[in-house]
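Section: Multi-chain targets

For targets with more than one molecule, the full set of components is provided together so that the structure can be written out for the assembly as a whole rather than chain by chain. Components appear in the order listed by the source. The example entry contains two components.
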Amino acid sequence: MNFRHVGRKLVGAIGMLAFVLVFNFFLFRIVDSDPLAKYRGRVLTEEKRAEIIERFGLDGSKWDQFRRYISETVRLQFGYSTDSGRPVLEQIADALPNTLLLVGISTVITIAVGLWLGAKSGWRPGSRFDRSATGFSMVFYAMPEFWLGMLLLVFAASRTGWFPTGGVRDLTQDLSGWSMIVDRAEHLVLPTITLVLAYLGSYALVMRTSMLETLGEDYLTVARAKGLRDTDVMRRHAVPNALLPSVSLIAISFGFVVGGAITTETVFSYPGLGLETYDAIQANDLPMLQALFFLSSAALVFANLAADLLLGVLDPRIRRA
Amino acid sequence: MQHAGRGSRSHRRIAALAATALTASGLALAGAGTAGGQETVTFTVATTQDADTLNPLAGFLVIDFEVWNLQYSSVTNMAADDFSIEPGLAEEWEVSDDGLTVTYTLREGLQWSDGEPLTAEDVAYTINRSRDEEWANHYATTQNLDAVAVDERTVEVTTSVPDPKLPALTVYILPKHIYEPMDADAAYEHDGLDGVGSGPFTVAEYRSSEFVRMERNPNWWGPEPAMDQVIIRIFESSEAQYQALVAGEVDAIDEVPEEIFETLEEGDGAVAPVAGNQGGFIELAMNAGCMEFGDGHPALEDVRVRQAINHAINRQELVDRVLLGNGVPGTSIYPSASPEWDFEPSEEEELGYDPERSAELLDEAGWTDEDGDGVRSKDGRDLRLRLFDRPAAASADSTEFIVEWLGDVGIPTDVASHEDDQLTAIIGQGEYDLFIWGWVPYVDPDILLSYFTSAEVTTDATAPGWNDASWCNEEYDALYDEQQVELDPERRREIVDEMLRIFYVDAPYAVLYKYDDLQAVRQDRWTNFSRQPAETGPVLFNNTSPSYLTIERVGAGDDAGGEAADGAGGSDDSGTNAGVIIAIVVGALAVIGGGIFLINRRRRTADERE
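Its structure, encoded as tokens over all components, is:
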């Protein structure tokens, strides 16, 4: 039974990946763009033109292109960026650590703070804490991310000089050791705060709602009847059960880490995958977009799979169903 | 006990997060004071454009040229003031009597940044190879040249046709020892990060969409610059870039948005605005359709219709309202970065704003509004034109004005916006009537003038030419050939002026305006920036980037308290941007207030339900 559950989820994930793979090919070919456009105005011999077309995998029929695309993608060969001419994978590998750091850290903080706020709010709905916490997280949830980032940039960087306005490191100095770590951390602060504030609300709300749902459950009455203190009832009985709906949300959030944070990275000129995506869109860089889209979709599919399997472990009812 | 422990741990976790944030900011303030062990003086420039490649054979973006201007010397230089010829790698030169041969004598003891000697061989190699392989940034200069290294310091350059540009020879001379091992393709694919140059700075590090860092060349032959390194930082938004300037993270920025530029005042403030002109212009181009190619509206083949469109446009209003005054109304094309080539129409030729004259010309051409629906037509065809613009460009703000003015004279337009690549393709297929785009000229007018010869009109979509107005004029073509070999500068200027007049009167373009490049610099830190050309030009991203050698630090040696002073600089400046800040604060209050209101309401209804 357990095996069948896992098997079904695995097949589902693989199917999803296959779909993404195919969809990806057609998605970016709908865009009518000329990869040779940037070479316009230069002297291009016929051979050179043919070579460029071949290099970017644009020769042959659509069917040939499709077959080549599939066989290359499954071997993780994504070709060359039409914008920079560098290998796509190399370019992604450069940006990936920055993104993992920024989005990873902020996701962890967001989840921790969001769940805590949500649990506490949901436990005493209507309390002063609930009203201010929910209000706080909703306001920032509703705020456009770029605007929030811009506010922080103006007031916490530009006007006050507390933090750098962008980038990942101080370029004017050659830092090492501890001072390098501090410098990196400084550059992370504002984008992290932006991301945390912008996404806090979704966790807080989900957690609050599921907390509210558990409030009327019989096992809580039983726990209280046992004479447990209110905080213990909450920590040991209510929170673990209320957490279940958040598990998928959390897993999926980690899937999004690989996608980067386009808006925030753009505001803070932070060279991660989000910025790469933004630049690739602007430059009509198909191979780059294709790879970015594929990788982030794949991460999401895996995260989703992890959530499904984890839920199966955590909640026996799901396995049975 | 156990529970209490767990509780406090979770509290500590939150507290720890807050502490990290505080420490980081504390260190940011403290860090500046301790950092100055062996002080590296850095001049940081910000731009919003990422380099495509730093390979001088293949790149073509403005930022690339800024890097090469610093990394490579050319045989002769262009003066900061007026682009006149100055010694470069060559300290002197001699022109033969027939004007076809120039003998350059190089400076003594020249070396590449890696210590290899820089000789006549390198010069001859660059000229000859760039001609043979048609290197994009060299070919226009070297296509007719042949160079021979006579000895270590002597290069003899011969041109096959008279060349008015000589003896000026301004192409980047590349290191033979780096490029010789590469065949044509390898050279073209080269990443340009070898860092071997003969200019004041050479590339030390480049990260795409982040920065280019250039270090001082120990073997540079010219005047010593005031900084050890130059960093060109790449920002994604011009707003963020401006904020970095205010914060003091960068020393100079390019492409300041008009709205911000408006708020900057010349004077003693930390930040100084610089509006510099180097001939960049925006035009409303028309498909004059001289080659039976594409599907342009036939009305535009008639010069009277094209002139009528010129008369319908109020250029001064565009300058005032789109550029906020940072430019001048356009006349003909501007073929050179130097204003000495600009064309001024005589009073009777002038195609100024005159809707009545416009209507007259359209009537004369047979395009009349007989049924009174506000649309002119002729032989059953309406004079309705497609108008394309580029959404990301500042010039897109002109579109609605132009649509209205053309509508006023009975020419309705269908507007569509296209990305640059797409619009290039559409123009290449000749499937347009009107579009708004622009050009930025070089110093010598030849290249821009060449684009409007008949030879550049597209007749085959797979090999598009440069003439994006599909405009042919035999007289213009003949004059073009004539100026190309005219060695008398005065005579050449007359010929070019006549070409510009023909272009203006025949009106394949309505040149809307010549715009200023809007830049800003930290004048509290650096002084003595060089405008190129003198008085009117920009201080950065100009033709030969002279500022990097002329700037001086303000109060050098007083840098320990730099960070604190920067903070002060920022607040000094706060008055100028007050409007923006107030708007932001009001917006924030509105959002927060609205949020609280909604939440309270929701809570009230929840209470009622209970």
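Residues 1-36, 558-582, 604-610 of chain B have pLDDT under 50 and may be disordered.
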